[in-house]
Amino acid sequence: MKRCKQAIISEILDICKAGASKTKIVYQANLNFRSVTPYINILVKNNLLEVRQGKNVLYETTDRGITLLDNFKHINSQLSEL
C-alpha cells in the first residue's frame, strides 16, 4: 500500500528528532535515496529540518517541524476515533 506524502513527511520528522543521517532516514522510513532527497530538500527549505554539518551531515527536526509533527499526530488520533 502506498503511503501519502503527509505520512512520509511525518515519519522523516519523527526519525530526525534526535538527528539522523540520510542513510538512517532511508532505512527507518523504508525509502530509497532517490525518493528521500526531494522530501529532505523541501523540509529543509521550509525550515522543518536543519542540516548539521560535521564529520557527517545530520538532519535534525526544528521546533517548527516538531510542531507540525505534533499536529499530524493529533489529527491522526482524531481520525482514528471516527
Please provide a written account of the structure.
The chain has 82 residues and is mainly alpha-helical. The protein has a single domain (5-68), classed as Winged helix-like DNA-binding domain superfamily/Winged helix DNA-binding domain (Arc Repressor Mutant, subunit A, Orthogonal Bundle), CATH 1.10.10. It has four helices and two strands. The chain has helices spanning 5-15, 22-28, 33-45, 63-80; strands at 49-52, 58-61. It has a two-stranded antiparallel ribbon with strand order 1-2. Strand 1 (49-52) and strand 2 (58-61) form a beta hairpin. Helix 1 crosses helix 4 (63-80). The longest helix is centred in the C-terminal third of the chain and has 18 residues, at 63-80. The mean pLDDT is 94.
Could you name the CATH class? Mainly Alpha
Q: Largest beta sheet: what is the strand line-up?
A: 1-2
Beta strand count: 2
Gyration radius, rounded? 13 Å
CATH architecture name: Orthogonal Bundle
Order of helices and strands: HHHEEH
For the residues shown, what is the average pLDDT? Answer: 94
Q: CA-to-CA gap between the ends? A: 21 Å
Instruction: Give me the CATH superfamily.
Output: Winged helix-like DNA-binding domain superfamily/Winged helix DNA-binding domain
Q: Main β-sheet: number of strands, strand sense, barrel status?
A: 2 strands, antiparallel
Proportion of residues in helical segments:
55-70%
Shape, principal axes of CA atoms: globular
Number of helices: 4
Structural class: mainly alpha
Total domains, how many?
Answer: 1
CATH fold-level label: Arc Repressor Mutant, subunit A
Low-pLDDT runs: none
